[in-house]
Amino acid sequence: MKAIVVTGQAAATAGMKLVERPEPQAAINDVVVQVHASGFVPTELAWPSTWTDRRGRDRTPSIIGHELAGVVIALGYGTTGLSVGQRVFGLADWHRDGTLTEYVAMEARNLAPLPGDIDFTEGASLPISGLTAWQGLFQHGRLQPGQSVLAHGAAGAVGSMVTQLARQAGAYVIGTGRAADRQKALDFGAKEFVDLDNDALEDVGGVDLVLDVIGGDIQKRSARLIRAGGTLVSIVGPTEARPVDGLAIDFVVESDRAQLGEIVQRVRDGRLRTNIGTVATLDDAVAAFNPTERRAGKTIIHVRP
Ligand SMILES: NC(=O)c1ccc[n+]([C@@H]2O[C@H](COP(=O)([O-])OP(=O)(O)OC[C@H]3O[C@@H](n4cnc5c(N)ncnc54)[C@H](OP(=O)(O)O)[C@@H]3O)[C@@H](O)[C@H]2O)c1
């Protein structure tokens, strides 16, 4: 089968290669999924799980990409809850070969049924951005109605989900990003927008929750805006910035069947819009993940035509 692999951290996304690999076998509690569409986040390449297994042993060349939508074609020993022929979507284990390929073996519990009225491309765009936003806001951020949320990168893949989910939960959302993203962020539900290149972030005043997708100096400055008891949640590396009197949390998204079900239901009933910018084939995936110009929205790889 065709697969996109990486062999060394230094090469980053430019080091991705399209290769031939043997098809995987289903282990206990696994399924094998025929991948129809797949996504990828660049931070994967910075996480140890891309390079080693759970015992710390080198597992390169590693198949990257960990979100997918597809069809179950085989069940492992003792696997329950899913059946052969079922449409599914979900998030594969970070320590195992991933989803930028034609077939993946993964634990059934990391998948949820994909309703027939959601296409595979949409389904593959939801696990990482949807679950990250959900877990950042509701699990780690403990968002309450009436609170204010600073949603960085609000026109991006995660930020647009954060903006929509926070707004629906009764929060006041202040989005940030590039000047060109203002209208997109407002359309996703932000009440205000801060152009980080030209506006003063500090003019925002106090907020209860910061959802950071940028890091560095923006993260540090955002921490100072947090009201007493508020939280800074980061998804881009160790949180150095501490709110004066609140929590700082850095996390990596994990799969959750119930949350995937909630997210896809919101897409079905029109409460959540996906944010897909580019769709490419597996043959063109390396170029798609190394764009020469700025790309808005999420890149999804259509594995099966
Ligand atoms: N920890 C986790 O579990 C987890 C999960 C998902 C994603 N991530 C990571 O989180 C980050 C965001 O992911 P994503 O998929 O949402 O990416 P994305 O679609 O590229 O969205 C990020 C948005 O933020 C904007 N942005 C970034 N830096 C900025 C700056 N300095 N000033 C103004 N705007 C800025 C980007 O604009 P430009 O494109 O112009 O820079 C883009 O609109 C990535 O690094 C990703 O790898 C981590």
From TrEMBL:
Q: Which domain of life is it from?
A: Bacteria
Top-level EC class:
oxidoreductase
Swiss-Prot/TrEMBL keywords: Oxidoreductase
- Pfam families tied to this protein: ADH_N, ADH_zinc_N
Enzyme Commission number: 1.-.-.-
Question: Can you name one GO molecular function term for this protein?
Answer: oxidoreductase activity
Note the Gene3D superfamilies from the entry: Medium-chain alcohol dehydrogenases, catalytic domain (3.90.180.10), NAD(P)-binding Rossmann-like Domain (3.40.50.720)
Ranges of residues in domain Enoyl reductase (ER):
11-301
Report the InterPro entries cross-referenced here: ADH-like_C, ADH-like_N, ER, GroES-like_sf, NAD(P)-bd_dom_sf, YIM1/Zinc_Alcohol_DH_Fams
**Would you tell me the protein name for this molecule?**
NADP-dependent oxidoreductase
